[in-house]
Amino acid sequence: MKSIRLYIILFLFGLLTGCFEDEGNYSYEEINPPLWSDNFNTSSPKRILAYAGDGEVMKFRGSKMFTWETDSAMRADEVRYEWKIKGVVISEELDFDMPTDEVVKKIGLTRYSNDMGEWGTFSVIEKKTGITFPARLFVYFYPPFAPNDWFILSENGDKSKVSVISPRTVLENGKETFNYKLKEDVYATINGHDIPGKPKDLVMETSRDVSAGGACVILTDQVAYEVNVQTMTKVDEVKDQFLDGAPADFKIAAMREKAPSSPSFGEGAASFIVTEDGRLFTRMRSANYLVGKYLTEPYYIDANGYEITMLGHSTYGQNIPCYDAKNRRIVMATTWREDVGEDMYNKTSVYKTRVIPLKRHQTVPVSEFAEGTEMLYLSQKHHIPFFYEGTTLLFTAYYNDPNYPATLVGDFGFDNRSASFHFNGFERWFRLPVKLDASSVFLVSSNYRSSTYAEDAKYRDFYSVGNELYFVQRAADWMDTSVRFLKFNATIPSKITSLAYAFFDLDQLWIGCEDGTIQAYDIRNINSPVLLFEKNVGGKVASIKQIGWHTTSHDWY
Questions:
Q1: What gap in Å lies between CA 150 and CA 541, rounded to an integer?
Q2: How far lies 220's CA from each of 157, 195, 209, in Å?
Q3: Which of 192, 257, 267, 349 is most exposed by smallest CB count within 10 Å?
Q4: Rounded distance between C-alpha atoms, residue 116 and residue 141, angstroms
């Protein structure tokens, strides 16, 4: 045993001796790696923003990402560069510009996702040795029309056009500046044909089957084109979305969608169409948007019949108040979850559309308006918190009663679960200092957000009189039912035809005019608005809508 141990020791000693004797047989070179200006190669990828679309350019600046410790000029000759996105080499230049659409084509990006990001690398490579020093990239690819962009529907002679205003941060003379980029008549440019008819509205749809950003219906008195909200490409016409073909004498007056508030429970989007003769048509889509067509037969409410002349405003995923002029009543377009099946062991829950007539209320005669009443505006509201949450919601009506010399404003509550009215005694009822007519434009928020400016908007309603804008200022204390009537301090050059909020924080007010003027105001201080932007699109502005990601807390304009 001792001799075996001795042999092993001698063998190991021989190995070590061989290693010592081998010293100096290798040559060593200093690597001299780039010094990254941030932890791009470890924890912090370089983030690059990119907007797709005609005229949009990406700027790649490798020289801003690293320096050399020594011999900068000589070292630059010893290396080459490589930019990769999604594993595809897009360039071997250090610094370069490339149209975003070209980058998108090179990497084979066919659909813009919700996170809009793609991983990549910027590598410094030694020519002689092939040693690679990589830095990580995360590139945000925003679609040609991205969240926070504005769609503008306006007259174009006897036709209509859609233009887009894009807020962008740009580099000018070495400094980042914020501006608004107007792209006129983009629908015709992209699709190769005009939009026939006089403009009516832009109707937002969730429609994730069309794009991650959803869809938009361009509504005129002749057509209803559904377009991809990210690319403006036409994907369908509403008349072709009926189960058994479009109804007879089908002319759309208005459209609204009740977005899915509970998709995790299988709820899909419910859409409501009103025709010029007052018929109501509905569609209930699946939670994954794969099925769902409009029923060709008009919706049946009750034996009284109906003539729907208005689809009101609501938050994303909530009830839509409507006016039935035939019966001078308000009806609520909504959805509800119902169990279907033979017994408790063979049943499932499905969402169905339902349109419910309101029976009565203390502040607004929701089912018995006077003969000759003119309904001007209906909207969900949220200026009385605590009492109106969950399935119980608050609404406001602006209307002209022939027995009063001024426009009336009143609140009413509705509970979707019980399909009945709700009253707690703090609802407002008042008269405006003026009698409005159908030419007035309204802008009301029903948001549930608690940010500073969104909170302010809950207690404020705008209404127009010609080229002047006014607002109702409610008291923020829900026990205080007083109101004030104030004038918006701005010079508006023409009759107001459209109003819009920046929906996320409600800190901007956008105004469209009869002469084609578009103005945007910062209204964080409502008493001193600041003009941010003014352009003219050449024809009467019918609708302004901001695109972006909504939740059930946001207004669904």
A1: 13
A2: 13, 8, 24
A3: 192
A4: 5
Phi, then psi, of 311 in degrees rounded to 5: -110, 120
**How would DSSP label each residue in 294-343?**
B-SSPPP--TT---EEEE-B-BTTS-EEEEETTTTEEEEEEEEEEEEESS
Q: Which DSSP string do the residues of 89-132 spell out, in sequence order?
A: EEE--SEEEEEHHHHHHHHT--S--SS-EEEEEEEEEETTT--E
Torsion of CA 386, 392, 394, 399, to 10 degrees: -160
Cβ neighbour number for residue 485 with a 10 Å cutoff? 14
pLDDT at 1: 42
Rounded CA-CA distance 323/246 in Å is 24
**Which amino acid does the sequence have at 397?**
A
Place of tokens 């990254």: 36
CA distance 97 to 143: 18
pLDDT band at 332 (very low <50, low <70, confident <90, very high): very high
Does the CA dihedral 364-368-373-374 come out positive or negative? positive
The position carrying tokens 């108040």 is 321
**Residue 467: CB partners within 8 Å, gap ≥ 6?**
492, 493, 494, 495, 496, 513
Measured between alpha carbons, how far is 358 from 414 in angstroms, rounded to an integer? 8
**Residue-level pLDDT at 524:** 97
- Cα gap 133→120, rounded to integer Å: 14
pLDDT digit string, tens, across residues 477-534? 888 889 999 999 999 999 999 999 999 999 999 999 999 999 999 999 999 999 999 9
> In this structure, what token pair is assigned to residue 387?
């009492």
Helix (H, G, I), strand (E, B) or coil at 268: coil
**Number of Cβ atoms within 10 Å of the Cβ of 287:** 16
Percent with pLDDT over 70 in the chain: 93
